[in-house]
Amino acid sequence: MRLRLIAALAMLIINAGAVAQLKVVSEGKAIQVRTDELIVHSKRIGRDFLIEVTLLDQPQPGRRYAAVYAVDGGLGVAGPASRLMVAGHRTVPYYVVAIGYANAMGRHVGQRNTDLVHRRVRNDEGKMMGGGGGAFEAFILEDLRPYLERRYPLDPTRAVLLGHSGGGLFAATILVTNPDAFHAYVIGAPSLWYDSPLAEQAKAIAPRGNGKRVFIGYTPSDALNSQSDQFAAPLLSAASTFNARQEVFDEETHNSEYLQLIARGLPFVLPTETAELPAIVVKPDVLDRHVGQFRIDAQRVITISRIRDQLFASLNPRALVPLEAQSPTRFFSRESNVILTFDAPVAGKSPRLEALVNDQESTAERIE
């Protein structure tokens, strides 16, 4: 009991420190659907930031969810695009926290050349820039995240960092210097010309990945101009213990590839339960045991049908969901994140099934 009290007091002290560094200036609803808009002042940095939190449509009570932290304000599209990704069952459900700047020019317009670059460097015009990345990192990790994790049902162990271009450089820097700061990383076209040692640092950190997922995407011109491929190579090497994936977006430009980072990168770092399940072949007579109708409630009935050597599930006759077999009684759909587990047959027919649909559980009884 005493140890729990001490731990609780310690957490209060930590949280009080975070609150002291962050002040909510204003809050309301953003133009985007189901999105909260906060203006927060960072005492650590001495400036205001625009925070947009894209909410889930139907969060389950008592559950905590992954959160994607998108710098550069998510370029104004990370939240809306993610709503489509979650609705399409391409990822587990997650919140988006877009971190940007409050001005009329655009959410990514602000002190990004200071905030996203850890080291002081000289740009092409001979002017010094950067040096604010460490403070910006501390603002996100020590001030913003603790505040949002108290306010929303966010899982502290499933925070993802999403950054592109200068934001990709910021994410890459945190990956090689503080890899456990985030659960996973989606990095687009990191601008290594700002900070050339990062490729060597990636080589040094590669054996200590411990299975952490990292997605790196870029165009061929990014490889020439930003050396993005040089950062990816060590993380994909035989010496690496990261679970890393690289994709080259041949048909995109430096700006348009951002949507591909969301569409391709987030399903890799936040996969659904069915995304990576192995499938087996089941004989047709075994499939026939599960064919029929199963009632969930007064309004919903799941129909299981067989077409040739495959089962299909539907709540609507015009929307058949193809099922793959994980075992003779357990079937799943990758495209809809559905898992159906049938009870052992009685008189040759499964009397009941357990349905897990996009992380929501229900039971259905066979009806005649």
Summary of the model, kept short:
29% of the residues lie in helices and 31% in strands. It contains 10 helices and 20 strands.
Describe this structure in words.
With 368 residues, this protein is an alpha+beta fold. The chain is 29% helix and 31% strand. The chain folds into two domains: 2-269, 3-Layer(aba) Sandwich (Rossmann fold); 284-367, Beta Barrel (Lipocalin). Strands 1-2-3-5-4-8-9-10-11 form a nine-stranded mixed sheet, sandwiched between helices. Strands 15-14-13-12-20-19-18-17-16 form a nine-stranded antiparallel sheet. Strand 1 and strand 2 (35-42) form a beta hairpin. Helix 5 (166-177) packs parallel to helix 6 (198-205). The protein is elongated. It starts with a helix and ends with a strand. The relative contact order is 0.09. Residues 3-14 have low confidence and may be disordered.
CATH class of the largest domain: Alpha Beta
Q: Major sheet: size, sense and barrel closure? A: 9 strands, mixed
Shape descriptor: elongated
Tell me the total number of β-strands. 20
Order of helices and strands: HEEEEHEHEEHEHEHEHHEHHEEEEEEEEE
CATH H-level superfamily title of the largest domain:
Alpha/Beta hydrolase fold, catalytic domain
CATH topology name of the largest domain, in short, is: Rossmann fold
Which features characterize this protein?
single chain, about 375 residues, alpha+beta, Rossmann fold, Lipocalin, 2 domains, nine-stranded mixed beta sheet, nine-stranded antiparallel beta sheet, 10 helices, about 30% helix, disordered N terminus
